[in-house]
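Before relying on records like the one below, remember that each one covers exactly one chain. Contacts with other chains, cofactors or solvent are not represented anywhere in the record.
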Amino acid sequence: MTLFPDKDIDELYSDLKLKSDSLIDNVVSFIEIKTTTSCTEQEQEKIAQELYSFLLDESTIGKYTPYISSFIMNSTDNYAINEINKEH
């Protein structure tokens, strides 16, 4: 019995990686708009780390946590929330 009979593990990984990258890109863009600055690659990595911590409900508060929370709460189409919930 397999959980995903129509997809192999590589295809599943690729799908999840694309969704994850898209979510991170959207959060970074949101933060850039709100702060009116461009994020460096190092800042983008920090945003991704804080997003992961936020989603895993770790009690860490970082520089970008308020923006991440705002992004999720203000997603007009709830895309971010639907994608997060779909994977759990």
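The chain has four helices and no strands.
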